[in-house]
């Protein structure tokens, strides 16, 4: 009887160990499945991140092209502005010279008018003297 009880206890212990081992195996399978799902999620997320990086790199490339174009346009505009400024200064200088010449010419005209008036007065005075002398 004692041997049968010992055997029965042994069987029960082994059954308990088998059940515990089965639970650990089931838990291990659950853990593996959980990690497999996590790997799939991370793989998907990584692929999406790669796609986003490619999209962003395309945007960066396009923006760099736009920046280059804007820089070129700005340089061209600056060159045009410098050309226009140079032309403006030249024309302004020419205008100042023309005004100077006009002032000189006006001064000469005024001097000639004054001389003409003085000459006219002298001529009138001579005519008046001649008329008076004749009388």
TrEMBL record:
Residues 9-115 form the Myosin tail domain. Residues 115-135 have a biased composition (Basic and acidic residues). GO terms for cellular component: myosin complex. It is found in: Cytoplasm, Myofibril. Residues 99-135 are annotated as: Disordered. Its main location: cytoplasm. Transmembrane segments: none annotated. Gene3D superfamilies: 6.10.250.2420. It holds the Pfam family Myosin_tail_1. InterPro entries: Myosin_tail. The keyword Cytoplasm applies. Keywords: Coiled coil, Cytoplasm, Motor protein, Muscle protein, Myosin, Thick filament. PANTHER family: CINGULIN-LIKE PROTEIN 1-RELATED, MYOSIN-6-LIKE. This is Myosin tail domain-containing protein. It comes from Cyprinus carpio.
């Amino acid at each position: 009887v004692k041997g049968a009880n010992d055997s029965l206890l042994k069987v029960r212990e082994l059954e308990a160990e088998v059940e515990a081992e089965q639970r650990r195996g089931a838990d291990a399978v659950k853990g593996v499945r959980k990690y497999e799902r996590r790997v799939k999620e991370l793989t998907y997320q990584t692929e999406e991140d790669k796609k986003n990086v490619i999209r962003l790199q395309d945007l960066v490339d396009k923006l760099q092209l736009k920046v280059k174009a804007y820089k070129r346009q700005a340089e061209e505009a600056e060159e045009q502005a410098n050309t226009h400024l140079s032309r403006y200064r030249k024309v302004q200088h020419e205008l100042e010279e023309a005004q100077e010449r006009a002032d000189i010419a006006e001064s000469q005209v005024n001097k000639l008018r004054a001389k003409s008036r003085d000459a006219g007065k002298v001529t009138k005075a001579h005519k008046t003297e001649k008329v008076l002398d004749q009388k």
